[in-house]
Description:
Radius of gyration: 18 Å
Helix content: over 70%
Shape: elongated
Strand content: under 5%
Distance between the termini: 41 Å
Largest sheet: none
Amino acid sequence: xxxxxxxxxxxxxxxxxxxxxxxxxxxxxxxxxxxxxxxxxxxxxxxxxxxxxxxxxxxxxxxxxxxxxxxxxxxxxxxxxxxxxxxxxxxxxxxxxxxxxxxxx
Length: 105
């Protein structure tokens, strides 16, 4: 059985659970703010770490880089930053849809 779907379902599920906590903590907030704040708690540290890797690679002198080691580090940092951005966008959309459907009268 292929379990790769868990890599996306687990963080998005945690984002939805966190959105209910944020909505209970700040009930006066609009749906869009609750959705974006709750979608950012997991991708934000991943994005920051990816950008720190890229900054470290950019500040490393060329003499210290091995055979394309700096290029691979920059690519990995950008990959993680891009994945975190996609996780934020998808999580925000899912949270917004769930809370918009729940608040319909």
